[in-house]
Specification:
This protein is of the alpha+beta class and 125 residues long. It has a domain of 72 residues. The protein is built from three helices and four strands, in the order ββββααα. Strands 1-2-3-4 form a four-stranded antiparallel beta sheet. The protein is flat. The N and C termini lie far apart (67 Å). The model has no long low-confidence stretch (mean pLDDT 87). This is SWIM-type domain-containing protein. Keywords: Metal-binding, Zinc, Zinc-finger. GO terms for molecular function: zinc ion binding.
Length: 125
């Protein structure tokens, strides 16, 4: 599908894709009226048409959380390993944790079986 961008004033551009599809792209706010760019942080096809019109690089409009530097900062903290159960401290003064008591309703449990399609339906009454 071919998208044709046109300047709409200010920092906004109108992008026409097909007969009934028009979207407004704002390169300063990093948003498009289709909301894909707003949700993902990656320019949608409407924004890419405007970026191509302005002869700029799409990479500069991708959110910073997708960059290699941000990913390296996220995983830069050292995660210490957990010791095995044999090395855990024993808590001898603690009572064992038991499951909650089972409470059954009074009376006989109701048993309802599924009837076949050709079996007559009976009702109590």
């Amino acid at each position: 599908m071919q998208c044709v961008p046109s300047y709409a004033g200010g920092d906004k551009y109108q992008v026409e894709c097909g007969l009934d599809s028009q979207h407004v792209v704002d390169l300063v706010e990093n948003s498009c009226s289709c909301k894909n760019w707003d949700l993902t942080g990656i320019p949608c096809m409407h924004a890419l048409a405007v970026i191509h019109l302005k002869d700029e690089f799409p990479k500069t409009y991708v959110q910073t959380w997708y960059t290699k530097q941000t990913q390296l900062q996220i995983y830069s903290n050292f995660i210490s390993s957990v010791r095995g159960p044999k090395q855990w401290a024993s808590l001898s003064n603690m009572l064992p944790i038991l499951p909650p008591p089972l409470r059954r309703p009074p009376g006989r449990p109701i048993k309802v079986r599924r009837k076949e399609l050709d079996e007559p339906q009976t009702t109590k009454g």
